[in-house]
Amino acid sequence: MSWTDRFLEISIVVSLVAFLVAFALIVLRLVRGPTLPDRILSLDMLVTIAVGFIAVIAVRTEQSTYVDVAIALGLVGFLATVAFARYVINRGLNEEGEGGEAAVVEDGPATTNSTGDNAS
Fold it and tell me: Which Pfam families does its entry note (predicted)?
């Protein structure tokens, strides 16, 4: 076994241990997170850790199929984060009594006259 193979094996083991520690800390934040945005951020980080873990496994097994799975998981995780963020924003607007997006739609577009002044 050459020194490059040995270095790769040590790097893989260190990476997997680091991902395991990060995963445990993020699960702790998910459980203890005092607010909903903390929990959403921890879920996003869990997806990121899972993508990294899958990438390390792909290097170790030399299977490129794992990379495709990691990319798909990353895209799904991104969409989930955007959906959660939108939920939190709409929830915050509704709790403040501003009505969320429905109020914006009901107002309609602003109109301007030929001089550029608002016609309201």
Answer: MrpF_PhaF (PF04066)
